[in-house]
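Aim 2, interim progress: modelling of the zinc ion-bound target.
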Amino acid sequence: MRDPAAGPSPLLDAIRIGFGFDSHRIEPGGIMHLGGLSIDCNAHFVGHSDADVLLHAITDALLSAANLPDIGQLFPNNLEENRGRDSAEMLSLAMDQVRETGWELVNLDCVVQLERPKLSPIKKELIERISSVLRTDFHRVSLKGKTGEGTGAIGRGELAEAHCVVLITKSPPLAAT
Ligand SMILES: [Zn+2]
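Predicted structure of the complex, ligand included:
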């Protein structure tokens, strides 16, 4: 039993969770950038960068867990250099910053709400791509696709939303007790 007089356990500062959310409008034509993949489905997300809704939610979850500035602060959408920018590159830079502050990813879990295309056929490819960008193991990334059940902006195919929670730990993990 830990002596309460010793103050808070260092374990309390060895793990953090973070939550990220993003949404983007969908318009016909073009290429959809999702999870670092380029999907030819005759629709695209609208945004200043490549508008990858899933990678933006993951980026914000990671930065938030490590108490770092959010994606909008790191990559302002009024800067010309961020126009059409590859979100995989932004996520990779964010992961670098998280690691530079002494944290390592334990796992992340995402939900994407999107009417089309169906994500189940490309789920494995998405997870492989995300884990590759994060330079982490495949099993640390999980992903679920949901539709809007045909209702609301998501159901009409006008909007996509992505949610992500991450768990990070100080590296080496849980060394101090
Ligand atoms: Zn976004």
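Helices lie at 53-65, 71-74, 87-100, 123-134, 152-155. The chain has a mean pLDDT of 92.
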